[in-house]
Specification:
Low-confidence stretches of chain A: none
Radius of gyration of chain A: 20 Å
Order of helices and strands of chain B: EEEHEEEEHEHHHEHEHEEHH
Bound molecules: adenosine-5'-triphosphate, magnesium ion
Number of strands of chain A: 0
Strand content of chain B: 25-35%
Distance between the termini of chain A: 55 Å
Structural class of chain B: alpha/beta
Order of helices and strands of chain A: HHHHHHHH
Oligomer: heterodimer
Chain lengths: 216, 254
C-alpha cells in the first residue's frame, strides 16, 4: 500500500480522535471544578466519598475504566453493548480526566490567599460571584501549566480507545499494520500525535502568555 | 446616632479567650483609634465587627439594627441577611487584598456594579473622582502589581469608599508599608477624618492616632484597659498598663 493511501485512510480516523479530545475537555474541565468543590466540602461524608472515587480513578488504568464502562452494563445487567462506542469512550475519558483535573483545581483553589475571600466577602459579593469573578480566574492562571501537561497526555491517551474498537487513528493504524504486515502505519500515527501535541503546546503557551498580564 | 454598637462581646479560639466582654460604640462622624500590644485582640475585634469572625456572646448592632440576637432558647443567632449589613461598613486590610487580576478601576467599580447594581457609567465617574482625590489620577488602567505599596493601599481605600459605607474599619493600614510610604496613606485617612467619615482605626502610629482621633482606646488582654480623648490617653494617663505600653512603645521607636 502506498504511503499516501495509508495516510488517507488514517485521516478518516482523525475526526474521531479529535472528537474524543475535544468532547473530553468539554466535559471534564467543568466537571473537575465540581468534583474539586465537593472534595473540599465541609461535609465530611461527601468529601470522603469523593476522595475515594478520585483515588480509584487516578489509581487504576484508564483502559480498565474504559472497558468497565463499555462492557460493564452488559455483564452486570445484560444491557447489550451499543454499536456506537463514542458514548462510553467519552464517559470514561471525561470522568477519568475530571478526576485528574479536580486535584489540580483543588491545589489551585487552596493556593489563593485567604485575603481574597475576605476582601470579596466584605464587599458583599455572594458565594457564586466570589468564586466565579474573584477566585476562579486566579486559579486558572495558576494551574494552566499543569492543565497543559494533562492535555498533552490526553492527546496520546485518545489511542486507548482502540481497546473498545472505536475506530480512531490508532485503531486504523493497527488494522492496516496487521493487513499489510508493515510497521509504517505506526510511524504515521506517531507523527499524527506529535503534530497534534505541537499544536496543543503552541495554543496553551499562547493562552499562558495572554494571562500573564498580572503578577500573582 | 450610633453607627456601630458592640455590647459585651465575647470571643474565644478554643481555650484562648481573646475578647472578654468588650463594648464599643461608635457615633456618626466619630474617629476612634485602637492601640495596644500585639495579641491583645484588636484585629479580632475588627474581624468580629466586620462579620469575618462570629462572636460567642454579646450583641452587634449597625444603625440601631440587630446583627445578632438571642433566640427563645438563649442561643446566639446572626441575622439571616448579613449582606444588608455588609453595605454599611468597609474594611481596609493591612496587606490591601486588592484583586490582582483586575485593573485599578475594575477593583473599584466591580462591587458597586455587581453587588449594589449601580450603573457602570456612574460607578466609573465616582471611581475616577475618588482616585483624583487620593492623588491617583491616571492609574486607573494599571494592575495592582504595577503600583507601589502606598498606592495599592490608597486604591484599597478607594475601593472601600466606592461602596459608600457608613463606617470604615482599618486594621493597621500602614504596617505592611515601607516607612517612606506610610505618610501618603496616613494623609488620606486624615483627609477622610476631616470630612467626618466615621472610622475605627487599629494602628501602631501613635502620633497619627493622636492627631486624627476623637477617641483613643487602649486594648490589652482582650479588654479595653482605658479610653478617652487622645491627649488624656497619651499624655495624662493614670493607668499603669497604658503608661507601660506607651513607654515600651516609645523606647522601641527611638
Ligand atoms: N483564627 C484564629 N485562630 C486561633 N487563634 C487566633 C485566631 N486569630 C487570632 N487568634 C489569637 O487571638 C489573639 C489575639 O489576636 P489578634 O490578632 O486579635 O491580636 P492583635 O491585637 O490584632 O495583635 P497584632 O497587634 O499583633 O495585630 C492571639 O493570641 C491570636 O493568637
Ligand atoms: Mg492585628
Amino acid at each position: 500500500m502506498p504511503l499516501i493511501k495509508m495516510i488517507e485512510i488514517m485521516c478518516t480516523g482523525l475526526s474521531k480522535t479529535c472528537a474524543i479530545f475535544f468532547l473530553t475537555l468539554l466535559f471534564s474541565l467543568p466537571l473537575g471544578i465540581i468534583i474539586a468543590l465537593l472534595r473540599m466540602s465541609k461535609n465530611f461524608i461527601i468529601s470522603n466519598i469523593i476522595k475515594f472515587f478520585v483515588s480509584i480513578l487516578r489509581g487504576t488504568p484508564l483502559m480498565l475504566q474504559l472497558l468497565a464502562i463499555t462492557y460493564g452494563p452488559y455483564y452486570l445487567v445484560g444491557i447489550s453493548v451499543s454499536r456506537n462506542k463514542l458514548i462510553p469512550v467519552i464517559i470514561a475519558f471525561s470522568i477519568n480526566y475530571a478526576a485528574y483535573f479536580s486535584e489540580i483545581y483543588r491545589g489551585g483553589i487552596e493556593s489563593i490567599p485567604k485575603g481574597q475571600y475576605e476582601a470579596s466577602e466584605i464587599l458583599g459579593y455572594n458565594r457564586s460571584q466570589q468564586f466565579l469573578k474573584i477566585i476562579l480566574p486566579q486559579v486558572i492562571r495558576r494551574i494552566l501549566p499543569s492543565i497543559t501537561n494533562e492535555i498533552v497526555t490526553l492527546v496520546k491517551d485518545t489511542s486507548i480507545a482502540f481497546t473498545v474498537s472505536y475506530v480512531e487513528i490508532f485503531t486504523l493504524a493497527k488494522q492496516i499494520a496487521n493487513s499489510q504486515t508493515s510497521f509504517m502505519p505506526f510511524i504515521v500515527a506517531g507523527v499524527f500525535y506529535y503534530i497534534f501535541n505541537a499544536l496543543v503546546s503552541f495554543s496553551m503557551s499562547r493562552a499562558e502568555k495572554a494571562m500573564n498580564y498580572y503578577k500573582i | 446616632m450610633n453607627v456601630l454598637e458592640m455590647n459585651n462581646i465575647k470571643k474565644s479560639f478554643g481555650e484562648n479567650n481573646v475578647l472578654k466582654d468588650i463594648s464599643l460604640q461608635v457615633k456618626k462622624g466619630e474617629v476612634v483609634s485602637i492601640i495596644g500590644p500585639s495579641g491583645g485582640g484588636k484585629s479580632t475585634l475588627l474581624r468580629c465587627a466586620t462579620l469575618l469572625e462570629k462572636i460567642d456572646g454579646g450583641e452587634i448592632k449597625y444603625m440601631d439594627e440587630k446583627v445578632t440576637y438571642y433566640d427563645s432558647k438563649q442561643k446566639l443567632c446572626y441575622n439571616r441577611n448579613l449582606n444588608k449589613f455588609r453595605k454599611v461598613f468597609g474594611l481596609v486590610f493591612q496587606n490591601f487584598n486588592l484583586f490582582p487580576h483586575y485593573t485599578v478601576l475594575k477593583n473599584i467599580i466591580d462591587a458597586p456594579v455587581s453587588v449594589l447594581t449601580m450603573d457602570k457609567q456612574e460607578a466609573t465617574e465616582r471611581a475616577l473622582a475618588l482616585l483624583k482625590k487620593m492623588d491617583l489620577s491616571g492609574k486607573e488602567n494599571l494592575y495592582p502589581c504595577e503600583l507601589s505599596g502606598g498606592m495599592q493601599q490608597r486604591v484599597s481605600i478607594v475601593r472601600a469608599l466606592a461602596m459608600q459605607p457608613d463606617i470604615l474599619f482599618f486594621d493597621e493600614p500602614t504596617s505592611a508599608l515601607d516607612p517612606e510610604l506610610t505618610g501618603e496613606v496616613l494623609k488620606v485617612i486624615k483627609q477622610l477624618a476631616e470630612e467626618k467619615m466615621t472610622m475605627v482605626i487599629v494602628t501602631h502610629e501613635m502620633a497619627f492616632a493622636k492627631a486624627v482621633s476623637d477617641r483613643v482606646i487602649f486594648m490589652d488582654g482582650g479588654v479595653i484597659v482605658e479610653q478617652g480623648k487622645p491627649e488624656d490617653v497619651f499624655e495624662n494617663t493614670e493607668n499603669e498598663r497604658t503608661k507601660q505600653f506607651l513607654k515600651t512603645y516609645y523606647s522601641n521607636a527611638y
